[in-house]
Inverse folding.
């Protein structure tokens, strides 16, 4: 018998004694993602000092749904309640509509109490037709073949040639426990893009919290770091999440080689899926992933307006931020690395 038919639904907040059953629910639910794991609560609170509310709904002592939320308050970008900042996926995961509606009511009540501008759910699939959505972000996922060589041959010819170019240049990959080389490569990369970098402490917290499921891969040419990427592993799928490289990477096809190495190593690890993360429509990253043979799928980010009258547009493609981006690109690396962590926490 369905537990909800016998016992009423009750909504609660994640506590230290609930972590194990929360994560067990996440691993059991097909719609749940790596970003629904309970450890993200500690990371968001410790790395960015965000207030968090990790709601769950249960019936008869059994979890029937979860919703992780964090508040991002910024003088520049407003006040939002989001599931989840710095995560490409989030939102409600529930066994049935009744549980999902109970979580949504709890979130809407919290949003009103906090007087946020809007509430954002970063769902992969549409949940509510009456919610506002943006056609901006796309995700790229596909199944892996069991054999590494077969996966290489599955890459479209032009991109496969770039991978082989990296191999011919003598590039090799290493798994790095120390985040120093990765952080330097990533910080330099986002500086060129004109966006702030997060703190090294954030990377360290990710490694501490997720252990073997958070892996740094560095691409080297002899003793030189060409590029580096931090990847997450979840339920047999690899997600290269933060990557960066400089001029040497472009000259040596370092990025193509790097993502091939992530794919190859994931295959050897027994993974069956590759998630290339999200990219904005009309960007170079979007085109790069399509050229690798990945088909884009629109992400169903859903919004409920509260204090705001229109949807937010806080992203680099917005023309109003063009001048700020150019100014940021011209600042010395030492300055942007010092100011970046304080600024990026206002973005989410």
């Amino acid at each position: 018998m369905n537990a909800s038919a016998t016992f009423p639904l009750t909504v609660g907040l994640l506590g230290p004694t609930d972590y194990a059953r929360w994560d067990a629910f996440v691993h059991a639910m097909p719609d749940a993602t790596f970003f629904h794991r309970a450890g993200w609560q500690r990371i968001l609170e410790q790395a960015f000092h965000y207030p968090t509310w990790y709601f769950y709904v249960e019936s008869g002592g059994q979890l029937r749904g979860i919703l992780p939320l964090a508040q991002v308050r910024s003088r520049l970008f407003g006040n939002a309640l989001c599931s989840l900042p710095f995560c490409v996926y989030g939102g409600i995961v529930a066994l049935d509509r009744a549980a999902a509606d109970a979580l949504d009511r709890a979130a809407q009540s919290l949003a009103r109490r906090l007087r946020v501008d809007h509430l954002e759910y970063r769902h992969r699939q549409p949940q509510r037709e009456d919610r506002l959505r943006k056609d901006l972000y796309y995700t790229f996922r596909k199944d892996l073949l069991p054999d590494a060589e077969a996966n290489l041959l599955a890459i479209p010819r032009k991109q496969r040639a770039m991978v082989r170019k990296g191999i011919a240049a003598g590039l090799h990959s290493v798994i790095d426990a120390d985040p120093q080389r990765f952080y330097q490569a990533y910080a330099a990369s986002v500086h060129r893009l004109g966006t702030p970098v997060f703190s090294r402490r954030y990377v360290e917290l990710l490694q501490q919290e997720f252990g073997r499921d958070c892996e740094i891969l560095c691409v080297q040419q002899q003793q030189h770091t060409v590029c580096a990427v931090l990847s997450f592993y979840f339920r047999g799928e690899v997600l290269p999440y933060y990557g960066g490289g400089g001029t040497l990477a472009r000259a040596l096809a370092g990025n193509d080689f790097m993502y091939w190495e992530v794919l190859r190593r994931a295959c050897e690890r027994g993974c069956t899926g590759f998630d290339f993360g999200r990219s904005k429509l009309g960007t170079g990253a979007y085109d790069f992933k399509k050229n690798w043979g990945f088909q884009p799928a629109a992400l169903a980010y859903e919004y409920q307006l509260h204090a705001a009258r229109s949807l937010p547009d806080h992203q680099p493609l917005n023309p109003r931020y063009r001048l700020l981006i150019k100014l940021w690109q011209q600042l010395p690396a030492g300055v942007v690395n010092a100011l970046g962590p304080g600024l990026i926490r206002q973005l989410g």
Notes: The longest strand covers residues 62-74. Residues 97-114 form the longest helix (18 residues).
